[in-house]
Amino acid sequence: MLTVTGVSRSFGGVYAVRDVSLTIADGEVCGIIGPNGAGKSTLFNLITGHLAADHGQISFLGQRVDRLAPHRRARLGMSIVFQAARVFRGMTVRENVMVGLHGRTRAGFVSAALRLPRHRRDEREIAAEADTALERVGLAEWADRPADRLPIGQQRALQLARALCARPRLLLLDEPASGLRGQERERLAALVEELRAGGLTILLIEHDVAFVTRLADRVVVLDLGQVIADGPPAEVRADPLVLAAYLGQAT
Ligand SMILES: Nc1ncnc2c1ncn2[C@@H]1O[C@H](COP(=O)(O)OP(=O)(O)OP(=O)(O)O)[C@@H](O)[C@H]1O
């Protein structure tokens, strides 16, 4: 589904990502971990198109995408949940999901603003689609509540619902567990497991090694911009190179 080949990116002459290659197969959950400054965010942004690579190739669904802008990659089926994503205040949970869907309808923003008949029909379809996504992430009963009152764990689920509405082929999660603890983290993990069981292909970067190794089929470990391990979670956790990279770092 995704192939990264020999990708590098430097800042001011220092490599943040150096000659990284990895592949993600259809239906796989791939986790990218690594100590602070390892290059995780840089690699994530190279894949989504928010950063341009200096060298290397990225292919998605058999097509070169490394020169495409983020929205073009999104149209091909990449959907991102950003770590810092916020909910829209003053809107309900359902409306928050509907905002993401408006751009996709034939009617679009113009007739939405003018409230044309076509808009009213599309609006009902959009609301139904939003409800389906909310159901999928366990937020159905919160649909009519103000989104900014949701606890942070549910706000993250809401962002997932928004991303799912784009019907992604590949879901990219940027530190989904950050700021979550205990039960919230458990709920999110269960949700990702459900999405995986549904056959969705997922790439996640995370600080929380335990969270990743629990969810991922495969874990790629970066250190100083390079891949130092790539394999099943149990294998990677026991790898001496990985243990050495994490030595002295809080994981
Ligand atoms: N825009 C930038 N300008 C200059 N240097 C950068 C930039 N982005 C990243 N770097 C450097 O590249 C290296 C990798 O950073 P990156 O943020 O990708 O690592 P990370 O693994 O995501 O780190 P963390 O776990 O701390 O978020 C670091 O040395 C960082 O200082």
UniProtKB/TrEMBL annotation:
Domain of life: Bacteria
Gene3D superfamilies registered for this protein in UniProt: P-loop containing nucleotide triphosphate hydrolases
SUPFAM superfamilies listed in its UniProt record: P-loop containing nucleoside triphosphate hydrolases
PROSITE patterns found in the cross-reference section: ABC_TRANSPORTER_2
A GO cellular component annotation in the UniProt record: plasma membrane
Alphabetically ordered keywords of this record: ATP-binding, Nucleotide-binding, Transport
Domain ABC transporter residues, every copy: 2-249
Pfam family, one: ABC_tran
InterPro entries: AAA+_ATPase (IPR003593), ABC_AA/LPS_Transport (IPR051120), ABC_transporter-like_ATP-bd (IPR003439), BCA_ABC_TP_C (IPR032823), P-loop_NTPase (IPR027417)
UniProt-recorded name of the protein: Branched-chain amino acid transport system ATP-binding protein
